[in-house]
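pls design
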C-alpha cells in the first residue's frame, strides 16, 4: 500500500503542469534575467510562473510585472536588453549588487511606466547614460549614484518633467552641465526637482546662469568635488526654496554672489577648497547651521561680527581664509556652536574664554596663527587646539599646547555590548547580522561623539523597518566617522529576530526603504551601502514532491552502503594509524590542531641543528618577540632562514600552525617560499627561503645601505602588489594577509619584492568577509573599516598596501612624531594639489621623480578610501602600476632588476622579526585609532 502511494506521488510530481499567469512577454523578459544573472533567488525556477508562484523580488498586478526589488542580494551579470519588454514596470531597484556590470541598455527608454528607476545605487554599471532615458516621462526618482558611468549627462534628461530626485553622484561623468537651447532640453527644465546630487564626478567648465530660475523647487544642490570653474552664477540666489548648497572642492573663482544672503532657507553652505576671492559676504538673516568657507583667497578681514546673529550655527569652518585680528569673546557663546575651526590664518592677540561659553562647544581649532596670549575662566585644555602659535613658545603654555589631533572616528560600544566584537565565543545572532553604511552628504552637526545625534536609528528607523515587514530585532550604531569627502558615515548593524537569518526579502526591504529615501532622516539626503550578506537561509518548499521522494529513496540506500563501507574503513584506518603513529611528526598535536600541510618538508631537530652549526651566534640574523632567526645551509647547498620559536610561546604556536598551513599552499615569485618546518623535541621552527637584502623598511630608512631611486621603488611596489594579488585571487583558497607593512616586504637578490610573515593571516571565506573577535594588525597600517566593524575582507590588505605606497614616495614611517602619513598626504593634496614637498629627500635630485609620482599617489589614496568597497582590488592596483611604468618607458620584468652587488653586497639580516620592527598587536574593545 505504501509503495503504491509513493508511485502515485512520483507520477503526480513529474506530471505536474504549471498554468502560467504571467504575461508571455513579461515571462520572456524575466527568463532572460534568470539566464544572464548569477545568484538569483532559489525560487526563480524556469518551470515556475513568476506571478503565480511569486518569484522572490518580483511583484505583479494580475499578469503584469510592475516591480523588481532585489537590492543587496549579490546579483551578478549585465542588465539585459530584454528588460525593456516589461512595459508595465514601475519600479526597478537593484542597488548594492556590486556584481551587476556593463552599460544600461540603449532601449531602456521603452519602460514608459517607470516611476522609480532606477535605484541602481552602488552597483558597477558603466558606459554612458543612454539618451533614451529622456523617454521615461513618468519618472520621479532617478538614482544612478556610486557606479562607473562616464560621458556627459544627456540633454534628454530635461524631458523628465515629473522628476523630483536626480542623483548621479560618484561616477565618472564629465563635460558641462546641460541647459536647454533652441533644439534640446537641459537640467533647467526640471522645475519640480528638489534634489540635484551631482558630486564626485568630472564635470568641467562654468555653470550656465540659465541653469537656475525662480520657478524651480530645488532644495538640495550638491556639486562637490568636480572640476567646475568660473564664477558662481548670481541666478543661484533666485532659487528661494534652497536648503543646502554644496560647491566645495572645485575651481570656482571670483566673488561669492551677495544675493545668496536672501536664501533664508539655507541651513548648510559649503564653499570650501575653491579660488573664491573678494570680501566675505554678509549672511545676516540666513538660518545657517553649518558653514564652510575654508581654503579660499578672500580679502584679509577680521572675524565677521554677523556670525553672532546666527543663533543656530553649530559649525564654523574658516581655515586658511586670511582672517586677522582678535578672536571675539562672544563667538564662543553662540548657543548651538559645536566646532570652530580657524586654523592657518593670521589671527593674533589674546584668546579669552569666559564662563558663559556654549555648553555645546566641542572643539576650538586655532592652530598656526599669531596668537600670543590665552586666558580662560573654565577648564578648556581638552577643548582648544592652539599649537603653532607664538603663545606655545612660552613655558606657561605647555598645558594647552602640544595637543593631540582628535580622531574623526567615534566608536559606540553599546552596539558591541552583546559580545559580537569582544567575547571569545561569538553569540549566534552576531553571525546573522547585516552591516551597512548610512552616508550623509550634508548634515547639521559636527560633534560625532554625541549619542543624541543618533537616537533616530533606534527611535525612528528601527520601528519604521519593522512596519515595512523586516523581521528586525534591533538596529545599533557601531561607529560614526567623517570620511575623506566630508560625508558623515554611520556604520550600522541590523540584527534579525530570534535564531533566524535575514532572508532576501528582508535585506531587499532594508535597501529599498533606505535608497529610495522612503525613510526620512533628520539630516537630509543620504544613501545606503552595505557589506554583502551571504547568510541567506536555504529556500523552503522549493523542491518538487517527486524530487523529495527520489532523494529519500536514494538516501536510504546510501545509508546502508555507507554504514557497511564505514565499518570496514574504520577498521582499516585504525590499523594504518597504529602503523604510522611512530613516524608521524604530528602525533602529539591535539585533534583539530594538526596543520593541513601541502608540500612543505618536515625537518627533524637534528637536521636544523646541523645546518645552523648548532644554532651558533654567527648564524643568528635576527631576533624578535617570537624568537630568533638563523641563517642556515641545507645539504643541497640552498640557503634558508630559520625562525625558531621561544619555548612556551603560546602565540607562537598559533602563528606556527597558521604559517605552515598558509605558506605551504602558495607558490609565487613575489611571496616568500616556505621550505619546511620542524616540530620535534618540543621545538617549533619555520624554514624559509633566504632573502638576502632585508626588508623594504630597512632600505627606506637607510639601514641596509641600499639606495632606492624612483624606478626601483615602482618595481618593488609592483612586485609586492603582484604577490598580494596572487594571495587574494589565485591562491586556493584565497588568503588575507592582515599584516601588510614595509617590514613584511622582503627584497631578494635582485630587489624583487616578496610578501612575508603570515602569522596573522587567515583564509578568505566563501562570502568574502569574516568575523573576528579581535582586530589584529599593526598601528599605522590598520584598515579603519576593519577596526570599526571587526569584519575582515581582502580590502583591509589593500588599505595597508596604500600606506606602504605612501612610504615608498615619502620614505617616512606611517606614524612619526604623532603625525600620521595618510593624514599628512591628504592635507597636502587638499592644500596644494600635489605632494612633492613630502617626497623622500633621497630622491630630490632625480630627474625622473616627477614621472608617475602624482598618479602613484592618487592610486595610493584610492587604496586608502575609508570604505572598503571604494578601494580597488589588488589586481586593479597591479594593472595601474604597470600602466605607470609603461608610460615612463620602464619596460622590465620584476626579476631583471640590477643585482644586489650594485647596492653594497648581499646582507645577512633582513627578516621581519628583528627587535626594531613595528609591533603587531591585537585590539580588544574600543581603543584609539590614528587617522
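designed seq:
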Amino acid at each position: 500500500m505504501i509503495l503504491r502511494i509513493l508511485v502515485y506521488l512520483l507520477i503526480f510530481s513529474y506530471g505536474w503542469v504549471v498554468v502560467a499567469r504571467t504575461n508571455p512577454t513579461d515571462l520572456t523578459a524575466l527568463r532572460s534575467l534568470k539566464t544572464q544573472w548569477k545568484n538569483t533567488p532559489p525560487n526563480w525556477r524556469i518551470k515556475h510562473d513568476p506571478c503565480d508562484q511569486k518569484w522572490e523580488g518580483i511583484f505583479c498586478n494580475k499578469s503584469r510585472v510592475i516591480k523588481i526589488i532585489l537590492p543587496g542580494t549579490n546579483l551578478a551579470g549585465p542588465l539585459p536588453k530584454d528588460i525593456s519588454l516589461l512595459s508595465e514596470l514601475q519600479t526597478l531597484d537593484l542597488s548594492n549588487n556590486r556584481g551587476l556590470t556593463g552599460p544600461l541598455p540603449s532601449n531602456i527608454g521603452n519602460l514608459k511606466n517607470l516611476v522609480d528607476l532606477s535605484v541602481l545605487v552602488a552597483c558597477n554599471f558603466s558606459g554612458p547614460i543612454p539618451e533614451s532615458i529622456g523617454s521615461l516621462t513618468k519618472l520621479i526618482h532617478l538614482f544612478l549614484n556610486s557606479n562607473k558611468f562616464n560621458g556627459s549627462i544627456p540633454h534628454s534628461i530635461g524631458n523628465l518633467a515629473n522628476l523630483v530626485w536626480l542623483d548621479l553622484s560618484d561616477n565618472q561623468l564629465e563635460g558641462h552641465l546641460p541647459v536647454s537651447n533652441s533644439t534640446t532640453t537641459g537640467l533647467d527644465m526640471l522645475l519640480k526637482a528638489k534634489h540635484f546630487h551631482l558630486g564626485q564626478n568630472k564635470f568641467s567648465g562654468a555653470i550656465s546662469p540659465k541653469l537656475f530660475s525662480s520657478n524651480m523647487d530645488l532644495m538640495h544642490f550638491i556639486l562637490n568635488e568636480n572640476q567646475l570653474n568660473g564664477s558662481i552664477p548670481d541666478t543661484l540666489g533666485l532659487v528661494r526654496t534652497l536648503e543646502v548648497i554644496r560647491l566645495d572642492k572645485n575651481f570656482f573663482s571670483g566673488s561669492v554672489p551677495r544675493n545668496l544672503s536672501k536664501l533664508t532657507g539655507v541651513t548648510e553652505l559649503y564653499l570650501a577648497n575653491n579660488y573664491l576671492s573678494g570680501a566675505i559676504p554678509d549672511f545676516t538673516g540666513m538660518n545657517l547651521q553649518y558653514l564652510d568657507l575654508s581654503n579660499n583667497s578672500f580679502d584679509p578681514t577680521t572675524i565677521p561680527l554677523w556670525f553672532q546673529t546666527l543663533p543656530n550655527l553649530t559649525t564654523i569652518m574658516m581655515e586658511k581664509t586670511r582672517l586677522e585680528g582678535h578672536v571675539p569673546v562672544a563667538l564662543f557663546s553662540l548657543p548651538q556652536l559645536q566646532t570652530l575651526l580657524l586654523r592657518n590664518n593670521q589671527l593674533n592677540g589674546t584668546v579669552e574664554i569666559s564662563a558663559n561659553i556654549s555648553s555645546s562647544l566641542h572643539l576650538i581649532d586655532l592652530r598656526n596663527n599669531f596668537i600670543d596670549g590665552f586666558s580662560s575662566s573654565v577648564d578648556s585644555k581638552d577643548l582648544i587646539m592652539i599649537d603653532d602659535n607664538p603663545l606655545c613658545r612660552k613655558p606657561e603654555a605647555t598645558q594647552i599646547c602640544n595637543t593631540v589631533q582628535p580622531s574623526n572616528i567615534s566608536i559606540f560600544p553599546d552596539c558591541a555590548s552583546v559580545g559580537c566584537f569582544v567575547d571569545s565565543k561569538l553569540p549566534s545572532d552576531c553571525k546573522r547580522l547585516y552591516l551597512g553604511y548610512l552616508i550623509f552628504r550634508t548634515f547639521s552637526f559636527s560633534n560625532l561623539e554625541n549619542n543624541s545625534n543618533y537616537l533616530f536609528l533606534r527611535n525612528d528607523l528601527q520601528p519604521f523597518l519593522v512596519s515595512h515587514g523586516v523581521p528586525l530585532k534591533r538596529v545599533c550604531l557601531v561607529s560614526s566617522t567623517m570620511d575623506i569627502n566630508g560625508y558623515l558615515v554611520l556604520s550600522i548593524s541590523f540584527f534579525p529576530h530570534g535564531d533566524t537569518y535575514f532572508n532576501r526579502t528582508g535585506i531587499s526591504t532594508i535597501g529599498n526603504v533606505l535608497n529610495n529615501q522612503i525613510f526620512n532622516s533628520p539630516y537630509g539626503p543620504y544613501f545606503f551601502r552595505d557589506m554583502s550578506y551571504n547568510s541567506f537561509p536555504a529556500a523552503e518548499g522549493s523542491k518538487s514532491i517527486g524530487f523529495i521522494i527520489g532523494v529519500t529513496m536514494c538516501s536510504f540506500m546510501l545509508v546502508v552502503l555507507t554504514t557497511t563501507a564505514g565499518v570496514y574503513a574504520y577498521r582499516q584506518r585504525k590499523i594504518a594509524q597504529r602503523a604510522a603513529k611512530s613516524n608521524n611528526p604530528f602525533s602529539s598535536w591535539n585533534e583539530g590542531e594538526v596543520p593541513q600541510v601541502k608540500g612543505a618538508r618536515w625537518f627533524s631537530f637534528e637536521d636544523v641543528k646541523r645546518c645552523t652549526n648548532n644554532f651558533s651566534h654567527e648564524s643568528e640574523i635576527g631576533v624578535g618577540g617570537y624568537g630568533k632567526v638563523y641563517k642556515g645551509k641545507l645539504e643541497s647547498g640552498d640557503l634558508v632562514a630559520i625562525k625558531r620559536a621561544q619555548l612556551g610561546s603560546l602565540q607562537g604556536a598559533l602563528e606556527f600552525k597558521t604559517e605552515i598551513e598558509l605558506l605551504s599552499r602558495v607558490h609565487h615569485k613575489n611571496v616568500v617560499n616556505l621550505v619546511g618546518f620542524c616540530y620535534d623535541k618540543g621545538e617549533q621552527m619555520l624554514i624559509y627561503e633566504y632573502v638576502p637584502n632585508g626588508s623594504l623598511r630597512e632600505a627606506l630608512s637607510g639601514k641596509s645601505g641600499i639606495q632606492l631611486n624612483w624606478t626601483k621603488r615602482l618595481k618593488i611596489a609592483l612586485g609586492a602588489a603582484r604577490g598580494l594579488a596572487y594571495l587574494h585571487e589565485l591562491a586556493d583558497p584565497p588568503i588575507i594577509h592582515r599584516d601588510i607593512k614595509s617590514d613584511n616586504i622582503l627584497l631578494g637578490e635582485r630587489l624583487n619584492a616578496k610578501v612575508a610573515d603570515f602569522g596573522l593571516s587567515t583564509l578568505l571565506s566563501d562570502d568574502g568577509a569574516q568575523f573576528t573577535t579581535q582586530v589584529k594588525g599593526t598601528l599605522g597600517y590598520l584598515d579603519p573599516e576593519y577596526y570599526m566593524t571587526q569584519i575582515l575582507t581582502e580590502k583591509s590588505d589593500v588599505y595597508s598596501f596604500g600606506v606602504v605606497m605612501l612610504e615608498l614616495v615619502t620614505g617616512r614611517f606611517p606614524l612619526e612624531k604623532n603625525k600620521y602619513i595618510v593624514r599628512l598626504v591628504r592635507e597636502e593634496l587638499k592644500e596644494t594639489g600635489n605632494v612633492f614637498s613630502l617626497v623622500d629627500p633621497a630622491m630630490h635630485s632625480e630627474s625622473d621623480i616627477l614621472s608617475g609620482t602624482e598618479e602613484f599617489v592618487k592610486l595610493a589614496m584610492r587604496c586608502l578610501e575609508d570604505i572598503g568597497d571604494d578601494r580597488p582590488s589588488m589586481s586593479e592596483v597591479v594593472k595601474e602600476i604597470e600602466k605607470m611604468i609603461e608610460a615612463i618607458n620602464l619596460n622590465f620584468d620584476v626579476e631583471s632588476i640590477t643585482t644586489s652587488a650594485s647596492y653594497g653586497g648581499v646582507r645577512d639580516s633582513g627578516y621581519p622579526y628583528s627587535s626594531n620592527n613595528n609591533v603587531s598587536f591585537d585590539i580588544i574593545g574600543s581603543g584609539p585609532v590614528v587617522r
